[in-house]
Amino acid sequence: xxxxxxxxxxxxxxxxxxxxxxxxxxxxxxxxxxxxxxxxxxxxxxxxxxxxxxxxxxxxxxxxxxxxxxxxxxxxxxxxxxxxxxxxxxxxxxxxxxxxxxxxxxxxxxxxxxxxxxxxxxxxxxxxxxxxxxxxxxxxxxxxxxxxxxxxxxxxxxxxxxxxxxxxxxxxxxxxxxxxxxxxxxxxxxxxxxxxxxxxxxxxxxxxxxxxxxxxxxxxxxxxxxxxxxxxxxxxxxxxxxxxxxxxxxxxxxx
Length: 255
Description:
- The structure is a single chain.
- The protein is an alpha/beta fold and 255 residues long.
- Helix content is 49%, strand content 15%.
- It has nine helices and seven strands, in the order E-H-E-H-E-H-E-H-H-E-H-E-H-E-H-H.
- It has helices at residues 15-26, 38-50, 65-79, 102-112, 114-130, 151-171, 204-216, 226-236, 240-250, and strands at residues 6-10, 30-35, 55-59, 84-87, 133-138, 176-183, 221-224.
- Helix 3 (65-79) runs parallel beside helix 5.
- The protein is globular, with a radius of gyration of 18 Å.
- The mean pLDDT is 93.
């Protein structure tokens, strides 16, 4: 298993990101925490630092490339190298077609997909210069098909997963590992907005532990829990008429 000394974490202010910050600090990694919520990451960073760990933080909007680039430069300045960059920033929420908003769709892609692209553009030259590094992008098991009420979220996560897969294939020869993290339902402020049942709902702390272990084991894809993983594999190959019927039963359109 690979131990990562210097970790940069995008989307560290709450939910899985906050849990990852505490998880990696507990295993003595040096951290740079990034998020649009400056107050939250300052509090998290202060708590981690008070326990004797090295932790810095900066406000960062992942949808803005220049801001992402400057925060990567900040991380290099503070840590010297970046062994692991975790791209956790993400937004979600219900998105029904009878009230579809293209602006909401674009906003979700700006964070969930173009945010990953911004980090890749900024971090790849750094890791090539280092001669090594690991990039872990957190997408979702919802990337497999177009789920009712989650069109924008599923589409943005699917695009993110494909982007990371392409990066993994190409960057391997440069000794840069790219890992796609596909969680199931994790209890966060984002999933609290969901209007449907969420089986095997997991606490952020358990998700963070599974993510860290999966990354350290060098898996190309870290996905969990297994009952949902297996269900998505079946759902992927369902005939459309069965899938459409099941979706309308499990997620009826909101009026």
